[in-house]
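Anyone else keep sequences and structure tokens together like this?

Example one:
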Amino acid sequence: MRIEPSSPVPVFRQIADGIRSAVAAGVYRPGDLIPSVRAQALSLLVNPNTVQRAYEQLERDGLIISKKGTGMVVAPDSRSMAQSGVEEGVHAALTQAIATAKTAGLSRAAIDKLYRKAWEGNGNTDEGQHDQQHRH
């Protein structure tokens, strides 16, 4: 997980989104322990209170559960919830980006070109790969 300090997205949200994405991808499975607040703060070089806020959000969302004496564990059936949350987050980010581009006077073709450039800049070549995986 990487934190972008210059991002308009608050750091606690970036942390929550990173854990959510890891659960959606199966990196963390139901019952798995996620890093402690202190360990996560040290690895990301952020304040432990920021990590705590992210974990509290994930707990409210039902993705993780606090286990006394153990720590935070991934909740049962959390993968589908996490995938839905990731899709909602991506939709919100794209909606915001499109609104910003339209306000700046960019055309649909220019916005599409920027999307393709961003997609390819992330090492993606097969545009239908994600959708095909979810149809099976």
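And example two:
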Amino acid sequence: MPVLQRTDSSILGVCSAEAGASTLKSPPSFLDLAWREGGDGTYIADATPLAIVCGQLCRKGWGWEGLALRDGLVMWDLSRASGEPVLARRLASWERTDRAEVARIEERDALYRPVDAETLAAVQADLVAALAAHSWAFGSKASIATGFAEARALTPGENRFARALLQDARCVVAAVDRRLADPAGQEAVAQAEGREAALLEACRLLSDMDQDRARDANSRGWDAVSSPAGHRLAGREFLSPAEAGHAFQLVYRHRRQLSAEMQDRLGIA
């Protein structure tokens, strides 16, 4: 139950002793309570969610009006209540304040209530597929995406974050594909001719070394500029002549990380 702000002083004004004695024979409608006689002029009702919140918000005021909340029950000694006009205004003020507070609590709780199973399964299936196909596109947030993909539950906010990560990754892949769709330099295409398989192998070697996705300056794997395109090419089953031209340009920048044998196969020894 959240910490609630007391509102007695602003709602109640003077105490019931100054407001006139009640002549009520039975309790008025209040907070969806179903009253039953409790004996000696008192009435009892099982506490509703509204009554539980209101009993905490307005504990002092309830006491002035003969109301009490104990052990899941609301008890009302009508002999202590104010006169009807004053009591009616107070009950109406309490109920308005209470319903607004309950609505706020429900809205807050909804932010942390897990999404349904179907929504969870859908976003996790998309995350698993995207991570398998191009985890590099998630950059430094790949571990967050993996955590969401493996989570037992997600809040609505986490679900929205997961969808945003997916969208960002797709945009990264699309941008890399547009870059690779542009023609490579003629010299690079010429150098790559007949070496497509070796260039693909070199891209995969450099991608395997690039576990940090170029975040650390450790001279291992791709640099930050080459990393997205290098990983994208490494995921291909084979390289087209145009892609091989791009691969040659990228690999050439990182040739010192390759073995002498690989450099010889690529014609860059």
